[in-house]
Amino acid sequence: MPKDLNEILPEFEPKANLWSKIEQTLDFDDLLEAKIKDLPEFEPSIEWNRVLEEISVEKKLKTVKFPNFIRWGIAASVLLALGSVWLFNKKSDEGVISYSVEKQVEIKSDLQANVSTSESEAEEFINQQCEEVEVVCMKPEVKELRAELAELNLNQRDLETQIEQFGNDPALVQAQIKIENQKAQITKELINILRS
Amino acid sequence: MKKISHSTKSTQAPSRKPSLLRRAGWSFLLLFSFASYAQQLQVVTKSIQKEIIYSAGSKINLNAKKADIIIKGKSTDRISIVVKLIAKHTDRSIAEKELSYLNYELKNASGVVDLSNSYEIPKSAGKLRSQVNTVYEITIPNKANLLIINSFGNISVNDFSGELAVKFNFGKLNLTDVSGKFNIESSFGDVYAENLDGSFVCKSEKAVVELYNPSGTTLLESKYGSVKLNLFNSLDKLVVNASRSAIEVNVRRFEDFRFDLGTTFSQINTPSAYREFLSNYNNQETLLFDTKTKKPLVQIQNSYSPITVHIDKNLQTHK
């Protein structure tokens, strides 16, 4: 701490007219105070309440509506994203189940009962002929056709086991018809040869 | 007050009559729809969607059972698969229960994509009461190598260019606008191919095979079936080795082709103007027609069944 402040602090000489300037300012203040009292009073044309209301509405718009919209938006998109992930996962693992209706088409299964009697008659005839006239049945053509007929019978049995599982399914019934037609054709050919 | 209540009555009164009528109408409709509902099949479908990135050269094996298969070729590097497992019954709960017996499996490992379906009917369930079916809708990249095995269902392949092998029993195979290498084996399954290009080999038994506008080289083997060929000069070479299969050939102009036809124990039917090219020796009828110019060759051998050539001036490609 220095002993003499006068040694450190700079010397300052005020301007000569300082006091008169201060006095002038004080005089002006007194004058202004006196004059203000004489000024006429005016009612402002703006309704302050309305202004306040407007401000508050604006504030509401700004603070409530906009950020909420964003907030809801974010919430919704997050939910949507999560939901789609969940849905996607569900889709790829479990599949999507849907329902509809279709008109029922009657599938007739009386095919076998009708055909089998005439068929077995024909087969009986063929077997009988082959026993009686062995030479005819030694013909390669007859051998081939009989082998084919035996294969068709096997096919038919296979199909019957399928039908036992799947019921009268349209695709299986169609297959059954195809085998029957094929068998009929082969049988006819065989009988023609055996008769001639 | 009185006036008001009166006025409300008067406004309600006219609306009550139509509401009664409406109610009657609704109940009729309900009854009717209930009656028709009883005859309707409830279809329950489980759809599974998958997408796989296809690496060139890898094999796609579709081992299907009792399925309808729809294949479409596309210039893409992805395989898009939709599998639909379907059960139908008048009682929805039965269809729903039996749908659970239908399964599919997709494996994608070491360059092989294996897709298959099965019907696992528990022994306690006995005979299925629903009609069940599996449907595949697959988009595959062109140049892919695809093998399809199926039974009792329809297969269709459209706009595909690549390598395809199909082995199937019953049902039908439809090929439209396809090119590449084809190897088909069918037993009881009909084949229809239109606008096919490349190399086509088809071995069929007890099947109807029809080709419409085959280009490139075609080899058919047919037993106990029928073959119908609609040929245009875009063909390169067609060979048919058949037995007991009725064969029909349709062409716009006879002179557009070279014919080498033969059948044993049967006959060749041809327009009268070309009968001079027929010959018969030792139960074998042949037709040799050589234009001495470079024309597509049609070579057919058959037995016990006829070969028929038709000229149809209106025959046109469906492109």
Largest interface: A-B, 31 and 37 residues
Q: State mean pLDDT of chain A (0 to 100 scale).
A: 77
What is the ordering of alpha helices and beta strands of chain A?
A: HHHEHHHH
**Percentage of residues in helical conformation of chain A:** over 70%
Order of helices and strands of chain B: HEEEEHEEEEEEEEEEEEEEEEEEE
Largest sheet of chain B: 23 strands, mixed
Protein name (chain B): DUF4097 domain-containing protein
Domain DUF4097 (chain B): 58-284
Pfam family, one (chain B): DUF4097
Coiled coil (chain A): 108-169
Q: How is this fold's topology laid out?
A:
The complex is a heterodimer of chains A (196) and B (319).
Chain A: H1 5-8, H2 18-36, H3 48-94, E1 96-103, H4 111-132, H5 134-138, H6 140-166, H7 170-195
Chain B: H1 2-39, E1 40-53, E2 59-63, E3 67-74, E4 78-89, H2 92-99, E5 102-109, E6 112-119, E7 131-141, E8 145-151, E9 154-158, E10 161-169, E11 172-187, E12 190-205, E13 208-214, E14 216-223, E15 226-231, E16 235-243, E17 246-251, E18 258-264, E19 268-269, E20 278-281, E21 284-289, E22 297-303, E23 307-311
Parallel strand pairs in B: 2-6, 2-8, 3-7, 3-9, 8-10, 9-11, 10-11, 11-12, 12-13, 12-14, 13-15, 14-16, 15-17, 16-22, 17-23, 18-22, 19-23
Antiparallel strand pairs in B: 1-4, 4-7, 5-6, 18-21, 20-21
Overview of this protein structure:
The complex is a heterodimer of chains A (196) and B (319). Chain A has 196 residues and is mostly helical. Among the domains of chain A are: 50 residues; 85 residues, no CATH class. Chain A contains seven helices and one strand. About 3% of the residues of chain A have low confidence. Chain B is mainly beta and 319 residues long. Chain B folds into three domains: 40 residues; 125 residues, no CATH class; 150 residues, no CATH class. Helix content of chain B is 14%, strand content 58%. Chain B is built from two helices and 23 strands. Chain B has a 23-stranded mixed beta sheet that branches. In chain B, 36% of the residues are buried. The N terminus of chain B is likely disordered. Classes of the chains: A mainly alpha (196), B mainly beta (319). Chains A and B meet through strand 1, helix 6 and helix 7 of A and strand 1, strand 4 and strand 7 of B.
